[in-house]
Amino acid sequence: MGYYNLDNPAYCEAKGLSKVFKAYADNMDEAGEIMEVGFNSNSGYVYIALENGISICSMLGRQVEYLVTDFEDGEEYFLETFKEAETKLKELNK
User: Fold this and answer.
1) What's the pTM value of the predicted model, to 2 decimals?
2) How far apart are CA 60 and CA 51, in angstroms?
3) Domain boundaries in the chain?
4) Exposure string (b/e) for 65-78, b if CB count within 10 Å is 16 or more?
5) Whole-angstrom Cα distance, residue 84 to residue 63?
6) How many CB atoms lie within 10 A of CB 28?
């Protein structure tokens, strides 16, 4: 998907981006480095993909969710907190 063009986001995308960046800032110590900032046009999610395997996302400016993907079967888990996402990621990596 590549990097997201932040020059002219739509209203809902801008709302979502503000929420995901705030969530990143709130969890910065545990979150680590940003790998990519993007927009998935199929789902409507804006996201920050982190190098640790967690993505912080928001669909159409709604509440932030934390996404962890099981790379063995492709199943995606949407979690409510960063801590829940970290726990799920550890569980999947066992």
Assistant:
1) 0.88
2) 24
3) 11-92
4) bbbbbeeeeeeebe
5) 16
6) 9
